[in-house]
Amino acid sequence: MSSRIALVHPSFDVPFLFLAAEKNDVELVLILPQDQVVPAGLPAIVGKEILPIYADPDDSLDKIVDLTERWGLDGIMAVKEQAVVWTANACIRTGLRGISPQSAIAARDKYQMRKLFCQAGLPVPYYHVVHELGDVDILPDLKYPCVVKPVSGYNSEGVQLASNEEQLLSSVRKVLELNDNIYKAQSWHPEGHFHGVIIEEFIEGPEYVVEMFAWEGEVVALNCGYKGQPRGPYFEESVYLCPADTGVALTDAIQKTAIRGMQALGLNNGPGHCELRLSPDGTPYILEIAARIGGSGCAHFNVEASSGIDFAGLWFKWLNGSLNRNLWPPKSLSSTEAASSWIMPLGGEGELIALEGIEQASEHPDCKHILIFAEPGKVYRPYPHFDGFLAIIFGKHENHQSGKAFLNFLDNTISAVWLKN
Ligand code: ADP
Ligand code: CA
């Protein structure tokens, strides 16, 4: 039987959620923060409503109650980081299934998250929060290098490595600017807006990702992926290859830490996307957990292509009340098949002329989807600014090794051409 779910502030660039909705007989009603054209060709969409969830979150919460009745909604969901707290509140107001607003806030505010991980006895890098440049002077026991980032950031925007006091001050200044220009307006919660700058220990080992799903307090890890070993000074998103080649014991340790992280934040239902890095002694440290499917729905592909588990389908089923014990816990159909996503590095800055090598990549047998976001003629600033991804390429592979070979192939095949000044 079909069900109807509101998707709050969707990303039209990523098709996986729409495809999964169609497969699960889910009709999607889009909740858009402002009017925009809905691209033709995306399946499962039956309507759209405009609610200014950032500009007027309280009024939008009043309005979602009527919309829920009018559309006969069975659920409300968001995969956009900045929409997660509003959506949790919308679920409370409408009586539909959702995560608690408190857990949503914990997953959105990196400072709160750190405190809860600490209370749960999880390994946590040292951390401090400052709200103005003057606060930096009074930090005790600060060691370099450290990482500076906005407490409510996303897409790695503003995340910087600081190796001395001068870099620290300039990084904090940049994050304060970003908070004023972007994050304060996009980080509403019922008592105010998140802001602040977190300064924390640099965990330098390889990075991993775990996608999870929780049902009535039982959290299941759906994969464990390798995310490279970014060294800074900026942390551009790059590769995602699952399963990682970590071996059973380390995979188990990484997944257990991620699961304990979900529990610490009170994320008892729904999806979780956890990023971790290893310390020099091999201990997994959680960098963050998001209460959503990672990458605006991209992580649905990584899970499904490697394991056969319909990640978004679990969420739809939980929301519409059809998740049952026969479907739980979800089981992987393969322990060796692999999936990857490759986020094209900028490799330059300024005015973009073109991307090269895309056609050649599309002919590779492992290449499954190519999403192009690049806009020739547009000016792209380097990180710590984020002016959009250029392209993301998704692969499905016989095993981890062939996935690794595919990522190397993409590195050597695709490049951006920049206008030379
Ligand atoms: P965002 O919400 O913007 O994605 P993250 O906290 O996930 O912010 O940081 C983005 C990236 O920066 C991470 O994926 C990681 O590569 C790097 N990073 C962030 N914090 C740390 C840290 N404490 N140690 C090492 N690397 C970090
Ligand atoms: Ca992140």
Keywords:
single chain, 421 residues, alpha+beta, Dna Ligase, domain 1, D-amino Acid Aminotransferase, Chain A, domain 1, four-stranded parallel beta sheet, globular, binds adenosine-5'-diphosphate, binds calcium ion
CATH topology of the largest domain: D-amino Acid Aminotransferase, Chain A, domain 1
Describe the main β-sheet briefly: 5 strands, antiparallel
CATH architecture of the largest domain: 2-Layer Sandwich
What ligands does this structure carry? adenosine-5'-diphosphate, calcium ion
Distance from N terminus to C terminus (CA atoms, Å) equals: 59 Å
Number of helices: 11
- Percentage of residues in strands: 25-35%
* Broad shape: globular
User: Based on helices, strands and strand pairing, what is the structural class?
Assistant: alpha+beta
- Average pLDDT reading: 96
Q: What gyration radius follows from the Cα positions, in whole Å?
A: 21 Å
**Helical content, roughly?**
25-40%
- Which spans have pLDDT < 50 for at least 5 consecutive residues? none
CATH class of the largest domain: Alpha Beta
* Number of domain units: 3
